[in-house]
Amino acid sequence: MSAVPRHPDPGGLPGPARGRDDHTAALPGPAPGLPGPEVLARVFLSRVLEPGDVTGGRWVRELGAVDTARRLREGTPPLPGVSDRRWAGLCARAARADPERDLAAAREAGVRFVCPGGGEWPAQLDDLADARPTGLWVRGRPSLRMWALRSVSLVGARACTEYGAHMAGTLAAGLAERGWVVVSGGAYGVDGAAHRGTLAGGGATVAVLACGVDRPYPRGHTGLITRIAQQGLVIGELPPGDHPTPNRFIVRNRVIAALTRGTVVVEAALRSGSLVTARAAQRLGRHTMGVPGPATSARSAGVHELLRGGATLVTDAAEVVELVGDIGELAPDRRGPVLPRDLLEPEARQILAALPARGAPSAADIARDARTTPDDAVARLYELRALGYVERHGDGWKLTRQAMISGRADPDAC
Fold first, then answer.
1. For a Cys staple, 321 with which of 106, 224, 293, 325, CB 3.0–4.6 Å?
2. Is the pTM of this model over 0.90?
3. Residue 192: CB atoms within 10 Å
């Protein structure tokens, strides 16, 4: 049974019989139909332009995807903003691009292509402006747009500690229980722990890859990414069969940041790629959160710098939801344990506080230290004796063992 987010209408994909516009292509299933020129142009551009190419994004915004693709195919005249060398490289890639072949490969792998403006396109990705993806390759049945409406990204170190893996899994499971979709990058470490924690909690998760969604990376996560595709969504900007590069991992992070309402960084060193995601979220006006770690841990140093720079400190899913959720989704108040002496009336607590740890002072001495009258002190002392806090020794009074133990239960309260 597929995991879905616990909120209304998880948004299963419409089948061909229910209709669709030209902004969705390569839907799994029979008779997918012919894609329109806009889809073909954007599939072509996903093969030619690198993800996050703002110059190419400006071309698409100013000329349109169809005309930009045509100019790249023809090769002349060059489009503005690039050197002759780079233009020649783009034209060489354009000569090898075959959008129909890419769509056929995607259909064979159960992958669809989603374009900006289509019914499944998450509008928040438009905040990336000219760095917006030309389109997204999506593997999995649910609607990306619907799932992204209530989503949080959870990222962190690949070489995380046991603490980092535990916190990522616990946070993810807690978010899943509250009906939130957890988005991460499918990598080792915190990413993998976040995906596994979500799936273990019966929730919904999305993996954003820096390669073609038909070839899971890293290889060691093939089983996990396959499971995510079966129960959730695997998405990416690169066409089928394309491979990851270091730069593609970095630019992929902007999609994770833009797609979600907020980003939580669990563990990160000072040069961690997950900080790129967090800073992108800050630039986009998304909530940015960090989970603190030991002050001596190099793997938490980046998170601590993020917190010093204005990110919000969170320690559990309730605190995350309080920040990114709707009005009224508040985390519970954090309080220490309630001690029996906390339930005493203020006058009785004042008398109890006046008794020393050793010795048996008289009621008059206790009254003086408590700044009250002897008669009031005697009345309160008998009340405290009935409750087991004090006992009488001749003309004096002393604390019982129960009072001594309860007084030590919270040594920081004084």
1. 325
2. no
3. 24
Are 222 and 307 in a shared domain? yes
How far apart, in Å, are the Cα atoms of 29 and each of 25, 114, 267, 324? 11, 16, 41, 36
Do 304 and 366 fall into the same domain?
no
Mean pLDDT (the chain, rounded)? 88
State pLDDT tens for residues 246-272: 999 999 999 999 999 999 999 999 999
CATH of the domain at 387: 1.10.10.10
The answer to whether residue 124 is domain-embedded is no
Classify burial at 19, counting beta carbons within 10 Å of its beta carbon; exposed 0-12, middle 13-18, buried 19 or more.
exposed
Q: Read off the DSSP letter of residue 298.
A: G
Domain of 316?
Answer: 144-324
Contact in structure between 321 and 178 (CB atoms under 8 Å) = yes
DSSP 15: P
Within this chain, do residues 310 and 387 fall inside the same structural domain, yes or no? no
**Of 45-59, 113-127, 329-343, which gets the smallest average pLDDT?**
329-343
Helix, coil or strand: residue 212 = coil
pLDDT exceeds 90 at position 38: yes
DSSP code of residue 315: -
Looking at residue 247, its amino acid is N
pLDDT tens across 275-286, in order? 999 999 999 999
- C-alpha 180: how far from chain center: 9
Please tell me the distance from the alpha carbon of residue 163 to that of residue 300, in angstroms, as a whole number: 11
How large a percentage of the chain has pLDDT more than 90? 69
From residue 339, alpha-carbon distances to 178, 342, 370 in Å are: 32, 5, 21
Q: How far apart are CA 182 and CA 155, in angstroms?
A: 10
- Cα gap 135→118, rounded to integer Å: 10
Length reported for the chain: 414
Residue 168 makes CB contacts below 8 A (sequence gap 6+) with 154, 156, 160, 190, 193, 194, 197, 266, 267
pLDDT reading at 328 higher than 60: no
Q: Report the alpha-carbon distance of residue 410 to residue 102 in Å, rounded.
A: 66
End-to-end CA distance of the chain: 54
CB atoms closer than 10 angstroms to residue 319: 20
- Determine the residue type at 328: G
- Least confident range of 154-158, 183-187, 281-285, 372-376: 372-376
| pLDDT, tens digit, 9 for 90 and up, residues 63-77 | 999 999 999 999 989
